[in-house]
Each structure stands twice: as structure tokens, then as C-alpha cells.
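Methods, example record. To illustrate the input and output format used throughout this study, we show the complete record for Ig-like domain-containing protein. The sequence lines were provided to the predictor; the line carrying C-alpha cells was produced by it.
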Amino acid sequence: MNQSILIPIPLLSLSELHVPHHPVTRSESLRDDDTSFAENVPNITVVAGKDVVLPCIVDNLEHFKVAWVRVDTQTILTIHTKVISRNPRVGLAQSSKRHWYLRLKNVEPSDRGYYMCQINTDPMEHSKGYLEVLVPPNIVDSGTTDGVVAREGSNVSLSCRATGHPEPNITWKREDGSEFIYNGVAVSAVESEVLQLTKASRLHMGPYLCIASNGVPPSVSQRIPLKIQFPPMLWIPNQQELAYNGQDVVLVCHIEAYPKSINYWTTAKGDMIISGDKYEAVSSDDSYRVYMRLKIRSVGLADFGAYKCVAKNSLGETDGTIKLYEIPNPHTTFGITTTTTYRQTTTEPAIRHAKKKERKRAKPNKGNNNNSPAIQNEVTDENNHGDVVEDEAPQPTTGPTYYGTIDSREQPGSSFAMSTSLKSRQCCVSNILICCVAYCFVVHQFIASFSV
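The corresponding predicted structure is encoded as:
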């Protein structure tokens, strides 16, 4: 490849180069040795679309001529001051008899190769240099995935093809830069023309970037969305909520589904809840995730019970239940009050108490006898798993702290505090009366002794 290719001498004949027709004397022949290249034609690298200049510097040119030749095609481009090529992008510039410049405008990848500068001495002198043309990467549509929609659990392939010189490298990344699972490992980037995802899940869902780069700016990228289809799934942070009469309460439900699901709230009877003065149903979504909130204003007796959040799409449907129980109003006071700090780690006692009140409202206890043993009722919900729960008011335990004035008749432990306080007062009064009687008796005896 590095072997010099010389253009046949007839192309650079003396008549064509306007050399005088007379015998060459020995003195003139000796001058050929004085004509030479001051420096070799350099190798030049240029980005496609730019202009380039290849220099040829000759010492002691005298009456000889200079020509530029494309080596790989054996094409003469210029002869001395005349441009021979019909390519309009080829030009010649000469600042002096010593400097000969070949100009190429708007360089193309096809211009890549060796270029030779020749002097028609005998023997011919020549120097050549290589023109390297770099091409920035370009992503081609023919071998690139447009976008993929697949069922959860299936294998997914994303492909990307790019051209350029040097050959571009392909890198896959998430559009937001987050990590994803590839071959069982969390990675932030994968270098490959094909991104193979095994058993793709909803966690793989989102837009990916195919980035092509080869060191020639600019790098290019293409956005390829990946959609994973799956039926709705619900997650309820709190399946049991507590509220007192007049309180505003918010029920929360999280949904994941794709295609996007139809989401709504219903009452225990199955009636769909519509936003209005009583209810406010709002939702916000992020990709395949939906966050649902149901606000119930000024809760009343009719509002306690079960509520459902429902999600449906073309692949299935599901629902979840949230139960709302009544608790005593901590801000209501009746008769004697005492200030108490009440701590509770679990809502189970309060829920049992709320369930007892619900059952009493549903079935009034006829012929109530204070001396009769506590009535037992079966409660089958998520917390007691069908066990028999004894009707009793919740007992205080450690946990969340509630501060405020508590009704002594409604709150557990307050009746004990009140009775203790009354007994203490009665004891004090008795002691005072005994002391007074004793004092009077002593005084009476003292006065009587003086009288005698």
C-alpha cells in the first residue's frame, strides 16, 4: 500500500508542460540534482465537511513543473498552475514558485487516501501524504428500534445501529441516568449494539438512550421508549383509619398498572364516590404509578365503615378495602375533667372499642344487666383473624402521644383517677374531724382542773 505509484511520463510530457524543445546539455542535467522537496507532503486529518490544504514545497524548481496526483485512482488533479480535475471542489493555490498548495473544499469521506506531489525531473521526484477524513457518528433508522411494548416477564431486545469513521461505539443508558437491571446486576450503562433484557419487569419501563460516539464530535443519541404491560396492583398503607365525629380524614391508595388503569373510590355498598361538598377524590401519576387520595370532610356517624379503591385496565382489575372506625372526640369535655397524657402503640384497643360501639348501634342491647358477664362477639377482620374478641373498652398502652383535656367518663383510666381523688379527700376530712374532737377534749379537761 505504501509502494509509490508513478503516473506514466506521457501524461507529463515535455510538450504538455511547455518545456523548450532542445537537447539537454550536461550542465542542464546536473541542475536536476539541485531541484528537490524542502519537506515531505504531510499526513493530514480533517473532519468531513471542512476545507483542507495539502502543501508541496520545492527548492530550486527552475524550469521544471509541479503536478498533484490522486494515487489510488491515478488521477492527475493539477499540472503546474492549471487545474486538470473536473471536480469543482479541487483547487490550486500558489504563494510563490516554491509553495504549491492543493485545496479541497467541503471534504467528503470519498476524498480519503494518498495524494502525491510530482516534479518532472529526470528521474521524477515525488512526495506523498495521506488525507484522513473523519466522519461524526450518525444513527440510522434501518437498524434501530423505534420503541418496544412487551408483557411483563418476557425477553426484550433494543437495537441501535450507527455509521461513522472510525466505527462508532454504542452505549445504552436510561434517559434519567438511573440504574437498571442487566443480567442480574444493577448497571448505569451497557456498551452493545443490542440491549438484551431478560424477563423484563415494570422496573425496566421508561425511555432509554442509544448513544453513538467515535471520538469525533458531536456524539449523537436517540430516545427509545420501553413499555411493559401488566395488570393493576394495589398497595394500601393503612387498611384501618380512626376518626371522631366532625373530623376530616384522608384515605390513601397506591396503584401500579400499564396500560393506565381507570381508578375510582366506592362505598361499602358499591356506590361510586364523586367529588363534591362531602368528598374530594384526587390522584397524581408518575409513569405507571398512581397515588390516590380520598378526603372525607366532617365525618359523621353515617361515614364510618368500609371504603374501596378500584383499578381496572385491559389486562385485569383489582380493589382494596380501607375501614374507617369511630373514636371518642378528645376535645369534648363532660362534667369533671382531668388533664391526662395518653400513649398508645397500637390502634387495636381503639378499634375493638369502635367495633363494639358499631355493633351496639346496629343491635341495641335489650334488658341490659350491670351484673351480667361481658358479652362476646365474633369479629373477623384482618387484625384478629377470626378470633373471639371480648367487648371491652380499649386499655391504655404506650405509643403515639395525644395531648389535651380528656372526659373522665369516656377515657380509660380517668374514672380510676377520679375515684382515687375523691377517696383522698374523704380521708382528709375524717382526719381533720378526729383532730378537732381530740383538741376540744384536751381543752375541756384543762379548764376543769382549774375549777377544782
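Annotations derived from this record:
Confidence is low (pLDDT under 50) at residues 1-31, 335-346, 364-423.
Residues 9-135 form a domain with the Immunoglobulin-like fold (CATH 2.60.40.10).
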